[in-house]
């Protein structure tokens, strides 16, 4: 007999309401600005009295925190799914597939991207729980670079703190330019985003083993 707990109706309804609040919040952040989120506006959109919102989120920062975790979980899942579906064993190609999946998600979700990767909310710091999936993504990145090192495709320092910092700087630079200048242009057609493979090739060449 299964002992797995099934959420009761009240718990399910609460979870649904939390999801609705977050959906409305991300929509308002897209139209009004990421830092301009208003609890009153969220409550009005949901037909809820503002004090009722506090039953679910005690503050605006709590909503930002929940959205940070939700976005971090989504982008982590997208990268892992893309890598799992890869039809090549070439470690560099697999790495590029993961990086491209990451970039596509960021361009499809510019509000989440601003919350996750740019400090657009004065005073906001994600909680350890919300930040955990982002740390998993960083560990995945370091692991993928280490795989390329172990395969003899990159020098050992590619998987160092400096290598990871350079990689994230390059990818975030491409995405920042694309979101700032052509936010509605698809990944393949973006003036900056379509350069991602070129930029990453520069990274791979920078860390290529001597004589490789």
TrEMBL record:
InterPro entries: Homeodomain-like_sf, HTH-type_TetR-like_transc_reg, HTH_TetR, Tet_transcr_reg_TetR-rel_C_sf
Pfam families: TetR_N
Keyword check for Transcription regulation: yes
Keywords: DNA-binding, Transcription, Transcription regulation
Positions of the HTH tetR-type domain: 15-75
GO molecular function annotation: DNA-binding transcription factor activity; transcription cis-regulatory region binding
Coiled-coil positions: none
PROSITE patterns assigned to the protein according to its UniProt record, in alphabetical order: HTH_TETR_2
KW Membrane (keyword) present: no
UniProt DNA-binding region: 38-57
Protein's name in the database: TetR family transcriptional regulator
